[in-house]
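Q: Give me a protein?
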Amino acid sequence: MSKESKLLTIVMVIAGLCSLTSCVEQYTIAGNTSLPMLDGRKLYLKTSSLHGEQKIDSCEVIHGQFNFDGKLDSTVVAELFVDNMSLMPIVVENGKIKVDINVLDQKASGSTLNEKLYKFIDDKARIDGEIENTSNDEIDMMMRGMHPFDAERICRERSARLSRSSDSLVINFIRSNYNNVLGPEMFRRLCMQFHYPIITPQIRLIVENAPEKFLKNPFVREYLEIARRNTAILSGESEEEPYCRIERHSNAIKVKQK
């Protein structure tokens, strides 16, 4: 081998090693909590996959403060747990992440994807709160003398409008995050509300123009495969009974034979 060839080989090896190193996510999570019940307790960061939950880090809360520090091969969405109770989601990614847990709110900030995630969570909570308040608004209208039928109609229309806004918020959030971990993760959380995988109008809008990267996510791929079969069954195109259910708080889609 010539000197030039040896030099080229060395350069390629170094470039490859640098590329691998750049894929490592170095994260630091600094947390504060005002909840006395958490003091002295151990917190866990866990991820979910089709194969179940995996603990990636742990620490103890001392005088209201806790810290996680480590490396991962790639960015992931994890859940912060105390015992078996999930407190909040956190995107574990490069950089310094700040976590605040108090009586009224839980929030992760300081990194790009966490800022995106918690803006979405805040916007969704605001709309959901307005939907819940429509029943109180109906009572207030009647107390002020409005006819019950008119009050019910106004609040029903308002609730339907807010529900459409909530659906659009979820769809647009997933679409705008097709190519990072937030898109598949929010799709998974959306699917958790169903008893078994099925294609709804909302899911159809999400996946109809989705890129290959999103569609190849293990959960998305398996969910859609089973959901399409279940949808065919429910529409009468197949005589089989719907099968498979979604395991709550997990990525797993467990087969349930009938």
